[in-house]
Every structure is written in structure tokens, then in C-alpha cells.
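B., you asked whether I could sanity-check this one before it goes into the benchmark set. Here's the sequence:
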Amino acid sequence: MTMEMLNELIDASVRGTLLGISAFFWIFGIVAIWKWFFGVTKRFVLWLFPNLGKKKSESEE
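And here's what the prediction gave me:
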């Protein structure tokens, strides 16, 4: 194994690690944004229709 091959292996492992860390943060960022968006949408729908999530009890009928 020459120094050039060893250097290429180390370089590839560093690139793979940086790519993995970057992909991890991107994916979790997108998941957090979508989770927030769905929460806002749910609150907006419940604000528009306040009785949508409430169950009717027997005493109210």
C-alpha cells in the first residue's frame, strides 16, 4: 500500500463522514419544518371549526 492509496482512503472516509453529517442535519431540519407546518395547519383548522374535535356528550343532546 503506497502513501497515495492510503491518502485517498483517508480522504474518501473524511468526505463520507462530512456527507453523512450534512445529510443528517438536512433531513432533521426538513422533518422539523414539516412538523411545525402540520402543527400550524392543524391549529388553523381547529380555529376555523372549533367544534370539530369535540365529542358530543349524552347530556348535551
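One thing to flag: The chain has a mean pLDDT of 90. Otherwise nothing jumped out at me.
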